[in-house]
Amino acid sequence: MKKINVGINGYGTIGKRVADLVSYQDDMNLVGVSKINPNLESNIAIKRGYNIYTDNKYKNKFKLYDIDIHGDIEDLISNSDIIVDCTPKNIGKEYKNIYEKYDVKVIWQGGENPNIASKSFNSISNYEELYGEQYARVVSCNTTGICRILYPISLKFNIKKVFVSIIRRGTDPRDIKSGPLNSIVLDPVSIPSHHALDVQKIIPNINIVTASLKVPTTLMHMHIFNIDIDENINIDDIISLLSKQPRINLIKNCTSTSELIEYSRDLLLPRNDIWENNIFLDSITITDKNIYLYQSIHQESIVIPENIDCIRSMMKLEKNKYDSINKTDNSICNRKI
Ligand code: NAD
Q1: What is the mean pLDDT of residues 54-70?
Q2: Does the beta carbon of 14 sit less than 6 angstroms from any atom of ligand 1?
Q3: 12 lines ligand 1 (CB under 6 A)
Q4: Which of 35, 45, 116 is nearest to 76 (CA)?
C-alpha cells in the first residue's frame, strides 16, 4: 500500500502528539516536523528519528546546539501530500499562501478562524463531509468534546436546546507565560462563547448556547451539560447510548480532574494523555425531559485522533468513519480507560 506523506508544521503541544500518532499509522509516512526554536522538544524529535525542518533564517540557531536540520519549511511542505498545521493560534493563516503555492492539502487547528477552511471537522459527526477536501479545520478541544456527545444524542432524540458551561484550564502544563494564577476569568464575558457557533458548523441547526470561563489549573477542562429533549427519556437509554460511542469513557468512583490524570499516569498512558471524553457516570441525571451531566476533557490530547481521521477522510484512505476511528484507536493500544 502506498503511504500518504504527512508533514507537521509546528511541533508544540498538539504537533508533537499528532507526529507520534502519524508515525504509528500503517497508511501514513511522517515526512518531518518544523521547529523554529532549538529547545528540548527538538531533542525529542531527534530521539524519535523525525526530520526537523526550519525557516532558513533560523538555521544558525540550531547549528549552535548541533541539531541537524533537514531543510527549509517550504521543503517540508513541498514533500508532503498533506500538512497538519499545528502552529499557534493565528499563525497558521500566515502559511496559507505557501500551502496554496505547493497545492498541498492542509488541516488547521481550532485556534484558527473558522473561515480559514470551508469545512470544520469532527470524526463521529461529519467524517464523510470532508472526504477528498483540500482544506479543513479540526475544531478545538472543547468543541470536539461537545460534538462527541451531542451528535449521537441528536440522531436518536429531538434536541430542543442545549446549554454547556465550560470551565477551562488556564493554560497547558508546558506553558510558563500564561495564567490565570489567582482568578476566575470570563473568557469571554459575552454569551455565547465561540464554542456554540463552532458546534453549529459541525451539527447544523442545533440550538445551543455555551458560556466559558478560565480557572487556575493546567490539567483538564470541565463541562456542565443541560440537554433539553422533546420527549420523555429514560436514564438507562442515555447511558447505554453513550457507552456504545467510540472515544467516550463513563467514569465511576471519581470526582475530579486530578484523580483522572493520576489514573492515566498509573495506566502509563503516553504523556498521561486521555483522548476520550470522560463523563462522570454518577452525574448523569434526567429531570423534566432534561439531561444533565459533567464531563472532563484532556485538552492536550482529545483532538489528536481527530486529526488522524481527518487525514484519512481528506486523502480518501477510508470511506467509512468507523473504519478510520477503529484503525486510529487501535494503533497504540485499546484506549477506553
Ligand atoms: P504550542 O504553542 O504548544 O505549539 C505551537 C508550536 O509552533 C511551537 O512549537 C512553536 O514554536 C511553533 N511555532 C510558532 N511559530 C511558528 C511558525 N511561524 N512556524 C512554525 N512553527 C511555529 O501551541 P498548541 O497548543 O500546540 O496549539 C496549536 C493549535 O492547536 C492552535 O490553533 C490551538 O488553538 C490548537 N489547539 C490547542 C489545544 C491545547 O490545549 N493546547 C487544544 C486544541 C487545539
Answers
A1: 94
A2: yes
A3: yes
A4: 35
pLDDT digits (tens, 9 = 90+) for 177-189: 999 999 999 999 9
Q: How far is the CA of 282 from the centre of ligand 1 (A)?
A: 35
* pLDDT above 80 (res 334): no
Q: Output the nine-digit C-alpha cell for 192.
A: 455565547
For 265-275, letters b (16+ CB in 10 Å) and e give eeeebeebbbb
The type of residue at 99 is: Y
Residue of the nearest CA to atom 32 in ligand 1?
Answer: 111
- pLDDT beyond 80 at 79: yes
Strand duo 71-72 + 82-85: pairing: unpaired
Rg (CA), the chain: 20
By alpha-carbon position, which residue is closest to atom 27 of ligand 1?
Answer: 88
Of the pLDDT bands very low, low, confident and very high (cuts 50, 70, 90), residue 2 is confident
Find out whether the beta carbon of 5 lies less than 6 Å from any atom of ligand 1: no
State the distance from the centre of ligand 1 to the C-alpha of 293, rounded, in angstroms. 30
pLDDT bucket at 1, cuts 50 / 70 / 90: confident
| Per-residue pLDDT, 332 | 83
310 flagged as catalytic = no
pLDDT tens digits for 112-171? 999 999 999 999 999 999 999 999 999 999 999 999 999 999 999 999 999 999 999 999
Q: How far apart are CA 206 and CA 202, in angstroms?
A: 9
34-38: long-range contacts at Cβ-Cβ below 8 A with a sequence spacing of 24 or more? 34/7, 34/8, 34/9, 34/10, 34/73, 34/76, 35/11, 35/62, 37/61, 38/62, 38/64, 38/65, 38/67
Residue whose C-alpha is closest to residue 143's, from 129, 125, 127, 130: 125
- Chain-centroid distance of CA 160 in Å reads 27
